[in-house]
Amino acid sequence: MIIFIHMKMNIKALTLFFGLFLITMASHLSAQSGSADTDEKALAMEYFIQGITDFENEDYEQALDNLTAAHVRLSTDPGINYALSDVYLAMGDYSNAAYYGRLAAEADPENKWYHLQLAEIHRRSGRNTAAIETLDNALRYHPRDLDLLFMKAESYVEFGKLLQANGVLDQILEITGSDFEIHLRKFRNYNALGMNEEALTELEAMRELNPGNLSTLQTISQLYLELGDEDSARNTLIEARERNPRDPQTLILLAEIYINNREWENLGDTFVSILGDPLIYPTQKMELVRFIYSQHTQNPEIETLAEQTSSVILAFSRNEPEYTPAQLIAAEFFIQRGESELALETLERVTTSAPDEQDAWAQRLQLLFSLERYDDIINLEDQAAEHAPNNAFAGFFTGLAFLVTDRFEKAEYWLEKAAMQPGRRNFRSLVYSSLGDARHELNEWSASKEAYEMALRLDPDNHGAKNNYAYHLSLRDERLDYAMDLAEEATTAEPDNAAYLDTLGWIHFKKGNYEEARRYIEQAVETGNAGVDVLEHLGDVYDALGDPENARIWWQKALDADPERQYLEEKIQ
Q1: What DSSP line would sit under 13-26, residue for residue?
Q2: CATH code assigned to 1-177
């Protein structure tokens, strides 16, 4: 194959060489036939040279004009015909390319390049039989030429005659001796024909050629799998592993066999055994870890695989404590598995050994927030500020921790920093929504409204922002119709959200729609997730409906839930 490619790369140069040679010879031989004839040949050579130059510059139309002019003066010259054929081939005109290619080959039947050109034209136009006949004509003059034989074998393959192709490949083997690439071609042909014994013979020949080469053994193992011979594939890979126990590609190929047979313990043990090897680079170990992790992701229901994946990732994390990617993938896995403490332990290790790893800080703070460990986040404030000052996620979760613990000035500071960082629109919408909440608590109502409006511009589907903005508008009896629209959109998106139902009910209350208010706020209570505000609101609604008995019941429930609401005692009395 290499020889054939090399030949194709030099066709243009050969065109110039042969054409010039033939025209020069023709001019020289005809010099005695008269000056007029000599002038015509000289002019033909000028047109030919200019045409070749145009062709090299890819100006095919101009090349065609000049070469046609040369052809008019020397129509039998094989070099001119060959050059015309080359131009038509480059232009995709296979009919004219074949015509002039045939003229060149007939004029000089011993020139293999002319035959190769004509055969290539026939192949491209789908005339494989004609291509093979052309190659056979050339092989009569050059029976051991590898360029011709390779093209003939390829033509047979394209024509679907795989046995004939292998016959030609056998001729090549007689000339070159045993060759891995040629045996591989024969294997593919026999395999496609379902001739397994012959295909195995070619495999063994390939294996004998380079028995100690890992790449060869890996390739052969995959070919065994194509034949359905898994045992031979496994044995070949085991041999490769014995030659180099640290080669990750061999281990991955073995792992695929273990996976196909659900040999999860073999899979995990194979990986764990090499993760402790200090001579294997962490990047190579990472290949194996990612591989088994991807298998677990695709088969999450297989508990044994999950256990083995956990063992592998834990071993990787502990054996490579300073390799940050090892710790991050471990944290990701533990979070996915719900093993929060292991994840936090891993992320703490990263932020200690590589304190400027901002993604690790973001993951650590997010995980602490999901566990409601707000004081832990606040205690890490200074470290996060030093090592992840411009990380939007780190700033966001730090700000949220201050927000839910009623430290609103700090919350505003961190959320403003997070809002200034680039990020996805939906994430930035969450930041601005939370910033609106903080500013509301600080009585910065104008700035709070700006934050909510920005949140909704960034993500019109941010239902949390719609609900909070609507509720705060209702508290101020401001733009109640607009607040109603926002609350209805939020409730439509999440009809079982107690906070959203309460907001919608409370806006109805503010508008004097007491029955509607009662209906929505009772639905909020019935969800089982109602907060103290909801209980108090329901008491207010009953009071407005002229039902003091039910009003006292719900106010009392609110007071029991939050004894600090002493003002409710007055309402109850």
Answers
A1: HHHHHHHHHHHHHH
A2: 1.25.40.10
| Ordered mean pLDDT values, 10 residues apiece, the chain (573 residues) | 32 42 41 58 89 90 91 89 91 92 91 91 90 91 92 90 92 90 88 84 79 75 80 83 78 78 74 70 80 82 82 81 82 83 86 85 90 92 89 92 93 92 90 93 93 93 92 91 92 91 91 91 87 87 88 86 84 81
129 half-sphere exposure, CB direction, 13 A CA radius: 0
- Angle (CA) 427-429-430 rounded to 5° is 65
Give CA–CA dist 328/520, Å, rounded. Answer: 45
- pTM tops 0.90, yes or no: no
151-186, pLDDT tens digit by residue? 999 999 988 899 999 999 999 999 999 888 898 899
User: Which residue type is seen at 37?
Assistant: D
CA distance 308 to 292: 9
Tell me the domain boundaries of the chain: 1-177, 466-482+499-573
Structure tokens belonging to residue 88: 């038509």
Radius of gyration of the chain, Cα coordinates, nearest whole angstrom: 40
In which residue are the tokens 């839930």 written? Answer: 561
Q: Is 163 in contact with 193 (CB distance < 8 Å)?
A: yes
Which amino acid appears at position 127 of this protein? Answer: R
Joined tokens for residue 50: 């200019």
Separation between Cα atoms, residue 259 and residue 369, nearest integer Å: 37
Rounded to 5 degrees, φ, ψ at 131 are -60, -45
Q: At what angle do helices 392-404 and 358-370 cross, to 10 degrees?
A: 30
d(C-alpha 275, C-alpha 280), whole Å? 8
State the pLDDT at residue 33: 41
509, amino acid identity: F
Confirm if 382 and 408 have CB atoms less than 8 A apart.
no
The 3-state DSSP class for residue 460 equals coil
- Same topology, domains 1-177 and 466-482+499-573? Answer is yes
CATH 1.25.40.10 assigned to 466-482+499-573: yes
CA atoms within 13 A on the CB side of 337: 25
DSSP state of 8: H
